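Each letter names a residue; structure tokens follow underneath. Both lines appear below:
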Amino acid sequence: MTIYQMSCFLTLSELLNFTRAAEVLNMTQPALSKIIGNIEEEVGAPLIVRTKRNVSMTDAGINLCNCFRQIIQLYNSGIEASVDIAKGMSGTVRIGFSSAMAGGILPELIKRMKLFYPDVNIRLYDGTQEEIIHLVNIDEIDIVFVDTFALRSNEHLDHKHIFHDKICVFMSNQHPYSQKDFVSIEELRTQDLLVAGRILPATNSPSTSNSIISEVMSDHGLLPRIKHVARTISNMLLMVNCNLGMAIMPEKFSVSIPQDVTCRPIILDANDTSSTMNISVVTAWKNKNQNPCLSSVLSIIDGIVSEDH
């Protein structure tokens, strides 16, 4: 039995008149009578009582009408849901991030996704850059926020620039450099540095701070003197607060630093305060990703980035 046949039967049940029902359905009365007869034959029971003056439904017909209404409603809901999924209006999108990279955009992204795509379920995965990029590569995450260093060994990923950020040194207010407006890269040569995670080559760096130290600092001839390796960025900042060393991270991370910690830009030339060290933050995804919700996320990101510029 087809949805069309069910609809014809329901139209007749509402109008209780073959002539009027046939007109509404844009068919001849004999054609409608044949459809109703086929339904009764398939059910194996009389569904309507037809006299010269009126048409009425049997109890079996009334019950079948209720069933047909539920089936058609479920059918229409399924069609609408499928269309929404295909358009990226509903479904699930999985976003990977590290706090240092996504802090400047993730809250606004989630806010706008809930506003414009309320039926899209957002799952967040936090981890090191190495971890979340691995999850993208094995299709367990749809999109991530990382720095450009993390993409050097993942050139197959599509990506979009989000923002540039200054690279800064975070230190305790007790540190003598905290009174300076800038800290030159030369001044960091003799300083104790803190990192989060574990020390790896830049192409496999598990954290933003490590990739900055491995890539940017070494590119300018600085071999960092690592004093402590913290398990997490929050623990690293606690060590900074205790004046056990300095941490190097993007400036946007300063929104969550303790009150007694200072953030200062790093400059390449002590005589040129405009020679700040910078980092580029991108969002990246697998170019063969088939999740329609990914395009919805990217459209929101485009709006946020265009406003920032």
